[in-house]
Design goal:
By secondary structure, this protein is an alpha/beta fold. The chain has two domains: 156 residues, NAD(P)-binding Rossmann-like Domain (Rossmann fold, 3-Layer(aba) Sandwich), CATH 3.40.50.720; 103 residues, ProC C-terminal domain-like fold (Orthogonal Bundle), CATH 1.10.3730.10. Strand 1, helix 1 and strand 2 form a beta-alpha-beta unit. The structure holds NADP nicotinamide-adenine-dinucleotide phosphate. NADP nicotinamide-adenine-dinucleotide phosphate binds next to helix 1.
């Protein structure tokens, strides 16, 4: 039996705990605490997990302690709990954006096993993409356990930490661009006579369905193959696709990824 403790019971912790319990995890294996006790109590009420009154109690109870607070408060949280971490030596799991394994390690007792996770906003609906990387103290069993936890709110991959910047662009930031794409489709629909709610619904479902199809066909057909499938010769779709490319569609996306990677490296420096 593996016990997970959560420090912070906000959006991300709630999404992960709810996803884990909904996919069969035993609520009695989860302990949560939050600076605002009502948040921990609400999560406990909703899922059957145990809310406790302090971060130290989480650390004492859990094999894996998930740090689910904002990155700016994390160093203070770790400092305040240093004695508890030193006494109980749990594996520490961080979902904080931008905090590297080296930085996390420097904030924890020497020799602490640390697993860094980068989920994305789609954890809110159980459809996250998460990247997972462990430090030199984390065992493959630690990494597998965290992948299992994150799989309960979507899909999770193990990648070297050096690839986190590229991952951040492709999964952390890209939802913002996809929402912008949905909004652009919606506006275009309104331009052509659809009501805004109807256009928004049609656009979002078209994007969601396309993503589902790409996932279902992964390994058999590339996104490019699927695009070709929709482009019948002399048809409407190829006319639209070429117009989008003439307006810089692919270069715009590559530029967005480039800028994100560069900014991520600047912030991590
Ligand atoms: N949201 C995303 O899409 C996303 C994606 C990837 C990674 N992340 C990462 O996930 C982490 C959590 O983000 P979130 O969106 O879940 O934030 P959130 O909703 O603000 O949750 C953080 C929770 O931690 C609580 N907290 C603050 N200080 C604490 C302390 N000293 N001890 C215990 N609990 C404390 C907060 O309570 P109060 O509200 O009372 O301060 C809040 O309930 C962040 O590090 C973020 O970088 C988020």
């Amino acid at each position: 039996m593996t016990t997970f403790g959560f420090i912070g019971a906000g959006n991300m912790a709630s999404a992960i705990v709810k996803g884990a319990v909904a996919t069969g995890a035993n609520p009695s294996d989860f302990v949560v605490a939050d600076a605002y006790q009502a948040s921990a109590d609400a999560l406990a009420e909703a899922t059957g997990v145990t809310a406790v009154g302090s971060n130290d109690e989480v650390i004492a109870a859990a094999d894996y302690v998930v740090l689910a607070v904002k990155p700016q408060v994390l160093p203070g949280v770790l400092e305040a709990a240093a004695d508890a971490f030193a006494e109980h030596r749990p594996t520490v799991v961080s979902i904080a954006a931008g905090l590297t394994l080296a930085r996390l390690g420097s904030l924890l007792p020497q020799g602490t096993a640390v697993v860094r996770v980068m989920p994305n906003v789609n954890a809110m609906v159980g459809a996250a993409m998460s990247a997972v990387a462990g430090n030199e103290r984390a065992t493959s069993a630690d990494v597998d356990t965290v992948v299992g936890l994150m799989d309960s709110v979507g899909d999770a991959v193990v990648i070297p930490e050096k690839d986190f910047s590229a991952y951040t662009a492709l999964a952390g930031s890209s939802p913002s661009w996809v929402f912008t794409f949905i909004e652009a489709l919606t506006k275009a629909g309104v331009k052509h006579g659809l009501t805004r709610p109807l256009a928004a619904r049609i656009a979002a479902q078209a994007v969601a369905g396309s993503a589902q199809l790409a996932i279902a066909r992964a390994g058999e057909q590339s996104a490019s193959d699927l695009s070709d499938m929709v482009c019948s010769p002399g048809g409407t779709t190829i006319a639209g696709l070429l117009a989008a490319e003439a307006a810089g569609f692919t270069p715009a996306i590559v530029a967005a990824v480039d800028a994100t990677v560069q900014r991520d490296r600047e912030l991590g420096a």
